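Hi L.,

You mentioned the student needs an example of a multi-chain input paired with its predicted structure. This one should do, with 196 residues in total across all chains.
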Amino acid sequence: MFVVDMPGLKPGDIKVQVEEENVLLISGERKREEEKEGAKYIRMERRVGKLMRKFVLPENANRDGITAVCKDGVLTVTVEKLPPPEPKKPKTIEVEIC
Amino acid sequence: MFVVDMPGLKPGDIKVQVEEENVLLISGERKREEEKEGAKYIRMERRVGKLMRKFVLPENANRDGITAVCKDGVLTVTVEKLPPPEPKKPKTIEVEIC
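Structure written out for the whole complex:
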């Protein structure tokens, strides 16, 4: 699970992608709000602009089982785990007589 | 208008108050989420804890006309302005004959 603060972003402003097999890329952009007619900004401290983070997924991540939910300005990306590979049975190689 | 990022906070976690006639106090607390059974945190960068900011309101602020709305992790506090005071009419003082 990846939990990222994204206050003021709408689902359409957020992008969640998997690239290069195992890199989870979370990006978004907060645009400056449209200035209201006659409004005067006294102070601006909230960051606007693009944000991007990359995370390397573990080997057992299921890249087809990823969900992303945004609530109250917090994005939660959940990556399912692949079931552990079945233990490999001992394999017998026949010995040929030469 | 005061616009404050408050990702992950619910309306009940946020407090908006006016103190000393003209000081707007915005505070909140983000608690650490309850640890899930068996969950292991690999990295934590999101700030948790209390936050508080005070703003001095201008003289023409209507302290009875303040609204606070939280959406997508962004709190917007709107303070209405009082109507400008009516221009004072000239006042005539009768002159008594003494």
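You could point out the following to them. Chain A has a mean pLDDT of 88. The beta strands of chain A are 2-5, 14-19, 23-30, 49-56, 61-71, 74-81.

Best wishes,
N.
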